[in-house]
């Protein structure tokens, strides 16, 4: 058994691990873990602690995937909803659909009795306005929000870390490999922007026969490359986990146009071996991992894409 989570998964990885130890199905372990991350205000990319869109409104994306059945459920651009991963799981469990967006997703949250909450923390509101103000002309500021928002999207290229996500991947005691993701998306995004976290094959993919991958940071790139699917399909073709990641890294690095930023790929193979790789993020990237042998979650450093490509990284054993 293993649970792998990104840097911001710390509030929930222990809970996910406990559920796995008690024999839970992977998704029944990951969803309560992610709910704790969503409720933690110190995590600045998801739930309560997340960042708003250009209008100052929170819009959340989330997904769950069961790699045994390849069932998945997702929600995107959901307003006023903290427990979006639970909502995504309810889409998987109860609807003949795979994804709900915006007001339809919120309507379904009402049917499930999930609390409605505008969420924006006072601190987030101040930072949101300060950054927006800095990129607006006096004219735009006077007219805001009745001004074109597209020219303001330059605010979202701010170097502060604003495009993270929480991802969890696991292999449970029944050998199901699953993923779950949750995010408030790219801070200061254009309203309605959807990232890779609810898009299967881009921000996540799981197939219990071969493995799983889930990505954080620049969803605009992983959606163009189908990064998570590349990793899992390569595993299916008999390629090792590291070579599968080398292929996914190469595809990302081949992109020359459009918005180019960092991506972090978290991946597991069917044996439960894992690798986390930093593709072009300036900051050091860490992640969390728990295994049944290890007992408690450990924080580790991701390898650099350049080191994996040049063979500097020790092979997985
Ligand atoms: N990877 C998170 C996003 O692009 O929204």
Automatic annotation (TrEMBL):
InterPro entries according to UniProt: Ntn_hydrolases_N, Peptidase_T2
Protein name per Swiss-Prot or TrEMBL: Asparaginase
Superkingdom of this protein's organism: Bacteria
Source organism of this protein record: Pseudovibrio japonicus
PANTHER family: L-ASPARAGINASE, N(4)-(BETA-N-ACETYLGLUCOSAMINYL)-L-ASPARAGINASE
């Amino acid at each position: 058994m293993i649970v792998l989570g990104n840097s911001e998964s710390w509030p929930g990885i222990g809970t996910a691990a406990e559920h796995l130890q008690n024999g839970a199905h992977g998704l029944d372990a990951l969803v309560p873990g992610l709910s704790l991350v969503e409720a933690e205000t110190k995590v600045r990319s998801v739930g309560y602690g997340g960042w708003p869109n250009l209008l100052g409104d929170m819009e959340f994306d989330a997904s769950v995937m069961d790699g045994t059945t390849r069932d998945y459920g997702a929600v995107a651009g959901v307003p006023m909803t903290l427990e979006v991963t639970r909502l995504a799981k309810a889409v998987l469990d109860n609807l003949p659909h795979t994804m709900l967006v915006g007001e339809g997703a919120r309507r379904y949250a009402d049917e499930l009795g999930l609390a409605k909450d505008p969420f924006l923390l006072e601190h987030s509101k101040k930072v949101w306005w300060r950054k927006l103000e800095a990129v607006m002309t006096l004219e735009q500021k006077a007219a805001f929000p009745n001004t074109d928002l597209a020219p303001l999207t330059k605010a979202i290229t701010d170097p502060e870390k604003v495009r993270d996500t929480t991802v969890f991947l696991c292999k449970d005691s029944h050998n199901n490999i699953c993923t779950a993701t949750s995010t408030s998306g790219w801070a200061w995004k254009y309203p309605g922007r959807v990232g890779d976290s609810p898009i299967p094959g881009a921000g996540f993919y799981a197939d219990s026969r071969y493995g799983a991958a889930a990505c954080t940071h620049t969803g605009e790139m992983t959606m163009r490359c189908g990064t998570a699917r590349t990793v899992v399909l390569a595993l299916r073709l008999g390629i090792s986990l590291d070579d599968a990641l080398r292929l996914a890294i190469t595809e990302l690095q081949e992109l020359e146009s459009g918005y180019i930023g960092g991506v972090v790929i978290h991946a597991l193979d069917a044996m439960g071996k894992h690798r986390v790789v930093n593709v072009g993020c300036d900051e050091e990237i860490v992640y969390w991992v728990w295994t049944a042998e290890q007992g408690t979650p450990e924080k580790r450093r991701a390898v650099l894409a350049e080191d994996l490509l040049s063979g500097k990284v020790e092979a997985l054993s």
